[in-house]
Amino acid sequence: MKHLKKISLLLVFAIMAASCGNSDDSPLGKKKEELVKLKDERKKLNEKIGKLETEIAKLDTTAASRSKAKLVTVKALSFQSFTNYVEIMGRVDADQNTNVSPEIPGTLQRIFVVVGQNVSIGQTLGEIDNTVSEVGMNELKQQIEFAKILYDKQKNLWEQNIGSEVQYLTAKNNYESLQKRLATMNQQLGMARIKAPISGIVDEVYVKTGQTVAPGMPCFRIVNSNKLKIKADVAESYAGKIKKGNPVRLYFPDLGRESDGVVNYTSKVIDPINRAFKIEIPLASSVDFKPNMLVKIKIVDYSTDKAIVVPVNTIRNVGEKSYVMIAVETNGKIKAVKKEVTTALTYDGQTQITEGLSAGDNLITVGYQELEDGDEIKL
Q1: How far is the C-alpha of 277 from the C-alpha of 240, rounded, in Å?
Q2: pTM, whole model, 2 decimals?
Q3: At what angle do helices 27-59 and 61-68 cross, to 10 degrees?
């Protein structure tokens, strides 16, 4: 019995010690106890708030309907102008843009022009070494002088009935033949000069003094920028739409400039290689326009002043049918209505609608992706 009493006393002391160890009267301990109490209170409040919200949602039908309405943006449709363009790439070309080559082979002895210089038709650009021809011409001139003396003497004798007719005709023929040779020699000497075939600006000098040149070898490029035009190849499929007189809009990407023009030529033959035909558009001269500059050509193939037009991305296609979503107010509520439409041409992100929509319809332009026919919406 004494042994049991000792064990009971030990247990009592242990419990008292444990209880003393769990209590903390320090400031930190008190704040921790306060935090635990506040968290318990917050948990109970959240449970009450959630319960009230659930009960309110069940009782308040107007709030439920508002939560179901989807937010959208609409655009009131009206008649407007619509133009469809055929877009192709072309290039600037000059009517007078030529490479100049020599007429005879030889060594280029002199160059008389520089890049950027204005030249006129017939002006000498360069000269080929013609020393041998000049020596031959000097010899020929001496022969002509001697032949003329003989001819004059034979002519005087013949007029006095002295000598034979054969001697006179021989002297005359020899003199005239040498004169013809002189004319040919002068022409050959002229061929040694490389001359400008057109008036314009020297755009390129391809050769240097002392270089050997030959016919067909480009030596100079001359460009006359006063007569410019735009050339382009158009696909065969547009042969029935693009004709002479079509108005066009020209855009020069390198210059950031636009201008208007008119097609003044369409070829009558389709190229069998690229299945295209050529068109030309006159271009007003300008120092900014340069041959071979790229041009975006927009040719009008359809235009109307009264069209219903919608953004192409608002059209949804299901099979062979096309639909858009419009906003319609019914019984005080605004709903999304799916309208089947007939589309026509599309240009620059805009599509013409020929059937299904009318002026005044409210097209849904934002938020239409998630809508179904009859869904309640909010503007």
Answers
A1: 11
A2: 0.52
A3: 90
Q: Write out the DSSP string of 78-142.
A: --EEEEEEEEEEEEEEEEEEEEE--SS-EEEEEE---TT-EE-TT-EEEEE--HHHHHHHHHHHH
Residue 330 is encoded by which pair of tokens? 């019914």
* pLDDT band (50, 70, 90) for residue 4: very low
Give the tens place of pLDDT for each residue, 116-162: 899 999 999 999 887 766 777 788 788 888 888 888 888 888 788 88
Please give the residue that has the higher pLDDT: either 79 or 164: 79
Tokens of 211: 């270089």
For residue 42, give the 3-state DSSP assignment: helix
The set of residues, in sequence order, having a beta carbon less than 8 Å from that of 182 and lying 6+ positions away, is: 137, 140, 141, 144
As a whole number of angstroms, the distance between CA 26 and CA 17 comes to 18
Asked: is 86-94+220-303 a CATH 2.40.30.170 domain? The reply is yes
Regarding predicted confidence, which is higher, 222 or 26? 222
The CB-side HSE value for 119 (13 A sphere, CA atoms) comes to 26
Q: Is domain 70-83+304-378 given the CATH code 3.60.10.10 in the classification? A: no
pLDDT tens track for 266-313 = 998 999 999 999 999 998 877 788 888 999 998 887 888 999 999 999
**Measured distance CA(364)–CA(280) in Å, rounded:** 44
pLDDT at 132: 66
Q: Rounded CA gap, 181 and 148, in Å?
A: 14
10 Å CB burial of residue 151 (0-12, 13-18, 19+) is: buried
Cα separation of 144 and 176, whole Å? 9
* Amino acid letter, residue 30: K
